[in-house]
Amino acid sequence: MSTLAELLPHSAGAGAVRVWLKSSAYTRRLLLGSEQADPWESAAGYLAYFVQAHGLLRPDVAVVEVGELIDAWCVRDGGLAARLGNRRRPATALRKLLESEAPKAVLAEVVTAVLSHLRGQTPLVLSMPSPRAWLLHANRMAGGTDDEIDADTVEDAAMYVADLIRSVSAFPVAGLLLEEQRDDRALEAAHIDRYRSVLNVAGHYRWSTVLRLPQSIRMAPETFDGLAAVIGDADPGQTAFGRDDSAAFALGVSVAPLAPNQFHFVEIDPRQQPEAVLEHLARLRARTT
Length: 289
What we know:
This protein has 13 helices and 8 strands. By secondary structure, the protein is an alpha/beta fold. The protein has an 8-stranded parallel sheet with strand order 1-8-7-6-5-4-3-2. Helix 12 links the parallel strand 7 and strand 8. Helix 6 packs parallel to helix 9 and helix 8 crosses helix 9. It is globular. The two termini are 24 Å apart.
């Protein structure tokens, strides 16, 4: 099985991945009736949804949204606050969100089913919030504030995320996508440096790691050492780069040609009409051939 890094474009221009889609909210609205719909109650139910979504969009990268699975399970289990009691430290909130075995078992069943369906024809990526993003998310679920979070707390969060990754380590996954929160203006290079335990665990299993940055964030190229690719607004110039063309895609406007080391990244607006999505996808793919 090829790693994700081997399938991404590089300076010589090779790479099977040219259009990467984030489409969960869109396909849930289209196929399940609401972008808040929950396809995660069972592996069989998820696979039925996944097969339809994958057949509709035929993406270069198959994506399982792990963060959505965890959140859906947490809601069905009564919410995070009920399990925290009086413990409200940010790292504790994330540990409680990720420690249960039940959603990990569902994730393993989902990954097994999806890999069987894909039969090695499309790389499978596990998408999840970055350690900092997941920490912010869990802390807000617990009623905390963002100013309680520092770089050391992010390092604790990375260890909990690494433990979650180990629960599916036996599967031939191509890589991980770590997503920062879209509006995180306080993200620093020091936070990303604290993700090292996640990168180390992924590397041990030969999984490539990709990081999606918040909008309009710029950082020095060395910040991204150890990553297979970065997704964002500005190419850091040191690795494969996913150019976030989501806004242009939603408007149906043309985008600039890709550089040899680049691929398109599109988060499909769930409000877009199916005909427009397929038309814009066809146009985008025609520019990469």
